[in-house]
From TrEMBL:
EC top class named in words: transferase
TM annotation in the entry: 6-25, 37-58, 64-86, 93-111, 117-139, 151-174, 186-211
Protein name stated in the entry: histidine kinase
Region feature (Disordered): 472-493
Start and end residues of each Histidine kinase domain: 258-470
Top-level taxonomic group: Bacteria
A molecular-function term among this protein's GO annotations: phosphorelay sensor kinase activity
SUPFAM superfamilies, per database record: ATPase domain of HSP90 chaperone/DNA topoisomerase II/histidine kinase, Homodimeric domain of signal transducing histidine kinase
Species the sequence originates in: Oceanibaculum indicum P24
InterPro entries given in the database record: BphY/WalK/GraS-like, HATPase_C_sf, HATPase_dom, His_kinase_dom, HisK_dim/P_dom, HisK_dim/P_sf, Sig_transdc_His_kin-like_C
Keywords: ATP-binding, Kinase, Membrane, Nucleotide-binding, Phosphoprotein, Transferase, Transmembrane, Transmembrane helix, Two-component regulatory system
């Protein structure tokens, strides 16, 4: 004969293990809703069954009232967990029915007639069945999860609900009082069925979790496949853009080469014409001689402007066309470059007493001096001079350019030299943020160093150190074999 207490203990152990299992699932799949509620429901149900099995050993108030309350709470929480799993909210009317039944009716009936269980079993059977029917209806409405799994769970729930209600009706119609924990065949069979049902319910709920995990994985795979397709399309578009940009850069290089050549040709003609005029006219008047010198100076400035522009284009491509040059000559040409704007009078040039020969790119070094002087003049008051000094230190030529201008804010000094970066205190003054960046690249391409010392509101001092050519050094090879002197780079400066 089946022992009811033994079956209750088995239910207690099984429900506890099932609750722990759902908590483990929650730890591994925290994004899936409802798993924590499942675990809580099974644990509370197990505690309630423990109190029911202790009837006769503890007061009826705890064993019956509290035990049934915990069992009912477990069913209610389990129902809520399934609703959360499907992304829905548990019906409010179900909460009200459970609260009225197990917080008001049940304690009152236990107090009035603790020995008679027939009406209590009937009422609890209908109430618990209502929770299970809500679960069955929820599974019936869903179309996302496997149909066989949902149908199996629906059938199990309907059978268990029918047995709960049927047990209540049988006991209610049976005369006399029957203790719940007595070894009555009906109780033993119903509790055994409950154990089997809870086991299959656990398996079914785990099956839903696995189905959801598989569906999420399939969805993520589809999203990943779509994202890969989008990235491939973007990569193709980017490759096409790069190819188009490369073609445009080649056209730009060709255009700049052509424009540079077309500008230099008339400048050379003008320069030669002024030289011939100076030769043909014996003792020209002072006004004519001054005009000829002005023309020659303007031609030199224009030539330097073209060289500077083309050199800036070549800097970003690291195309260095090295040749012997003299820094003193280039420094004077850089000062004369600003004659057209009348700012050359602000530059205080202190040349080295000896020649400073080096092997480098003439156009780039000229661009270096022009960019640094332009920044110093631009960011300092018009009535303040700019110091431009060259000196020799061992095998290095050191150039210093110092102004008394706005300086660089301390918080922004680390970013100075970044492409297109301009300090916050330069607003209202023209510029692109490329001048100092280009200068630093030129120094780097010539194995030099640059040091910047600046104080906000007190001016900036830039010191450039470049290697001096050794006496035995000859003309080195160009940075890029076969590079044309007139050919600009693809990057703008």
């Amino acid at each position: 004969m089946l022992d009811v207490r033994t079956i209750l203990v088995v239910i207690l152990v099984v429900a506890t293990l099932q609750g722990v299992g759902f908590f483990v699932l929650h730890r591994t799949q925290p994004a899936i809703p409802g798993l924590r509620a499942y675990g809580t429901a099974f644990i509370i149900f197990a505690v309630g069954m423990a109190l029911l099995s202790a009837r006769g050993m503890i007061a009826d108030l705890y064993s019956i009232t509290l035990g049934n309350l915990l069992v009912a709470s477990g069913h209610l929480i389990l129902t809520g967990g399934l609703y959360r799993f499907f992304g829905k909210r548990r019906p409010r009317w179900l909460d009200v029915i459970f609260a009225v039944t197990f917080l008001l009716v049940f304690p009152l009936y236990v107090y009035l007639d603790p020995g008679n269980i027939s009406l209590r079993v009937l009422i609890s059977g209908f109430v618990l069945a209502s929770a299970f029917l809500c679960m069955a209806w929820l599974l019936w409405q869903d179309d996302d999860y496997p149909r066989p799994l949902r149908w199996i769970l629906i059938v199990l729930i309907l059978i268990h609900s029918s047995l709960l209600v049927g047990r209540g009706i049988v006991l209610f119609l049976t005369p006399g009082q029957v203790e719940m924990v007595a070894n009555h065949p009906l109780h033993a069979l119903l509790f055994l069925e409950t154990n089997v049902f809870m086991t299959f319910l656990f398996i079914g709920l785990v099956g839903l979790v696995m189905a959801r995990t598989a569906a999420d994985l399939a969805r993520k795979n589809r999203e990943l496949t779509a994202e890969i397709g989008i990235r491939q399309q973007l990569q193709e578009d980017l490759s096409a853009s790069f190819a188009k940009e490369s073609d445009l850069r080649q056209q730009q290089q060709h255009l700049l080469h052509l424009v540079g050549h077309e500008f230099r040709t008339p400048l050379a003609i003008i320069e030669r014409a002024t030289e011939m005029i100076g030769v043909l006219i014996t003792a020209p008047p002072a006004a004519v001689a001054e005009r000829l010198r002005a023309i020659q100076e303007a031609v030199r400035r224009q030539r330097l402007l073209i060289q500077t522009f083309l050199a800036t284009e070549r800097v970003e491509e690291s195309i260095v066309q090295k040749e012997p040059l003299e820094l003193g000559d280039l420094s004077r040409e850089a000062v004369n470059y600003f004659a057209s704007t009348g700012q050359e009078t602000r530059i205080r040039l202190t040349a080295a007493p000896d020649a400073l020969p080096m092997i480098g790119d003439t156009a780039m070094i000229s661009t270096l001096f022009v960019n640094l002087l332009d920044n110093a003049l631009k960011y300092s008051p018009a009535d303040k001079p700019v110091q431009f000094a060259l000196r020799r230190e061992g095998d290095r030529a050191v150039t210093t350019i110092a102004d008394q201008g706005i300086g660089i804010p301390a918080a922004e000094r680390e970013r100075i030299g970044q492409r297109f970066f301009r300090a916050s205190n330069t607003s209202g003054r023209g510029g692109t943020g490329l001048g100092l960046h280009t200068a630093m690249r030129i120094v780097e391409l010539h194995d030099g160093t640059m040091r910047i010392d600046s104080k906000d509101g007190q001016g900036t001092m830039i010191e450039v150190s470049l290697p001096i050519a050794q006496p035995e050094a000859g003309l080195p090879e160009a940075g890029v074999p076969g590079a044309d002197t007139d050919l600009p780079s693809a990057t703008g400066g």
